[in-house]
Amino acid sequence: MTQELDANRGGYDGSWPDEARVDVRTDEPATPVVNSFTEWECLEEVIVGRADHACVPQWHLTLEATLPRRYWPFFKTHGGQPFAPELLTAAAAELDELSRVLEAEGVVVRRPDAVDWSRPIETPAFRAASGLYGAMPRDCLLVIGNEIIEAPMAWRCRYLETRAFRALIRNYFRQGARWTAAPKPELEDSLYRSELAGSEFDVNRDRSAVTEDEPVFDAADFCRIGRDIFCQLSHVTNRFGVAWLRRHLGEEFRIHVLQFNDPNAMHIDATFVPLAPSRLLVNPKRVTRGGLPQMFRNWELLWAPPPTVPDTHPLYFTSPWLSANVLSIDEKRVIVEMDEKPMIEFLTSHGFEPIPVRFRHVGSLGGGFHCATIDIRRRGRLRSYFE
Ligand code: DAV
């Protein structure tokens, strides 16, 4: 048996050659099984995360740099233990409902494996008391064109997070997708700026939790607008990580590093959210028109209304701006948190068709609709959206 055939074991029936197939009705090359260049083109297939067995991460400098101070005691007390079963059951129900809504809109939905995250992670360099979860595929997987890239994540508890998605990824590979894991980081103590513990963190003043010792990034610090990819440096994404991705993607793509008013930055997708060509939803607390590159001068900026999540609702990992963490099905249809009435009205008044879904408990785990999904296939080809 050749290596190629061997790699295809496990149910592969040989009906998917790896080259682009041809649609016999049109003679057009069929869209590859993995194909996504933007955040808004018509969504055909998506992975929706799973809350099962999610664990509270063990306290670490990278948590101090990003998480709301009021929840630090929660992490210090419960680190390494599973989240409360009631929270996980409620979050799982919301993720199931999101899946049903997407299916009803004509999207193929895949779900990851339910992994036991309570097992510790140990390498020669570190030990983490537990993993985190498989709830937020946007953080650990970057899809650009027909390639799935596993992100080199800076949180030790997230070191093996793509395990939940490996069975799906293997199948996408069998169907022609490209599959890459960025260099596995070592996550030695020297990656972390321990001297900043107990002081102020600010990604814009060279006070990030991570050094430049090795490349690290979370996929959710990147945002795709065709040939142009926008990202931010954060407490999990360093310059070295951006440089690795830039060289890996090559000349076809341009990576732009943006700066926002978000000292505790981790993930760009509640800050800078393109919804259609020339239409960008922005977080008014973090973005100014002058702070965006000139290339956006003709873009319509949609200033997100303030979030309405009650202060009593626990958001352990994030700001309340998860309200802006929407998922576009196409240039009109946008999945929005059901209780975020101002956002629903705002999008409606701008010609969008919001689809409300309940998602507050997933919010407690650190993400909105964009975080909890990863688009596998959207219609459309590689192109530039800027003159
Ligand atoms: O408060 O900006 C962003 C999304 C986290 N995955 C925030 C959270």
Word description of this protein:
The chain is an alpha/beta fold and 387 residues long. The protein has one domain (31-378): L-arginine/glycine Amidinotransferase, Chain A (5-stranded Propeller). The protein has helices spanning 3-7, 61-66, 72-78, 85-104, 137-140, 166-174, 239-249, 341-349, 360-364, and strands at 43-48, 108-110, 121-122, 127-128, 141-144, 147-150, 178-181, 222-225, 228-232, 254-258, 272-276, 279-282, 300-303, 327-328, 333-337, 353-357, 373-378. The strands form six sheets. The protein has a three-stranded mixed β-sheet, covered by helices on one side. The protein has a three-stranded mixed β-sheet with strand order 5-6-7. A three-stranded mixed β-sheet has the order 8-9-10, covered by helices on one side. The longest helix has 20 residues, at 85-104. It is globular and about 55 Å long. The structure holds delta-amino valeric acid. Residues 220, 267, 269-271, 318-319, 321, 325, 366-367, 371 line the site of delta-amino valeric acid.
